[in-house]
Specification:
With 161 residues, the chain is mostly beta strands. 9% of the residues lie in helices and 46% in strands. It has one domain: Lipid/polyisoprenoid-binding, YceI-like (Lipocalin, Beta Barrel), CATH 2.40.128.110. It has two helices and twelve strands. Strands 3, 4, 5, 6, 7, 9, 10, 11 and 12 form a nine-stranded antiparallel sheet that branches. It has a three-stranded mixed sheet with strand order 2-1-8, with no helix packed on it. A hairpin with a 2-residue loop joins β9 and β10.
Length: 161
């Protein structure tokens, strides 16, 4: 029987299916949403790979930046060419740990609150906080982009081996 676990991060929700120590996912879903005065921004990426070690709580995500799909083609083009420079920085990665893994009863189906800490690599810069990844936003569009962006993760893991 598969178990479902939802891990909630400060800005991320993860759905996990687990049965053993080490689990992998190859088609996870990460999306972000930014509400702004001029226009809301939303993009989805279904090309997320991840490894989760249940015992230690170690967690890694990797995804192609060009995998984000926007409703408007021009928004997607600007995201890849002007902001993320996806040809130069093709992948983003998160490497961290679920710090309260021992408090989660992964033998029971359900949703669980989890705390995750780690390093996020975006635009060739690795940091532990989401701000300041050397991404320049032109003043013309600064009001179109919110200071806070909601990021969501939906991953269904399977036993590794």
């Amino acid at each position: 029987m598969q178990k479902i676990i939802s891990l909630f991060l400060l800005f991320t929700a993860i759905t996990v299916t687990c049965r053993a120590q080490k689990h992998i996912a190859r088609n996870g879903h990460i999306w972000f949403y930014s509400e702004a005065p001029v226009e809301n921004i939303e993009a989805h990426n279904y090309q997320v790979s991840s490894i989760l070690e249940i015992g230690s709580g170690k967690l890694v995500f990797s995804l192609p930046v060009k995998g984000f799909q926007f409703e408007k083609a021009l928004m997607q083009e600007h995201f890849n060419e002007k902001f993320m420079h996806s040809d130069e920085y093709p992948k983003s990665k998160f490497k961290g740990k679920i710090t309260n893994i021992n408090e989660l009863n992964l033998k029971e189906e359900g949703e669980y609150q989890a705390k995750v800490k780690g390093e996020l690599t975006i635009h060739g810069v690795t940091k532990t906080k989401q701000k300041n990844y050397d991404i320049t936003i032109p003043k013309v569009v600064q009001d179109n982009i919110a200071d806070t962006v909601d990021v969501h993760v939906d991953i269904k893991y399977r036993k590794y081996n």
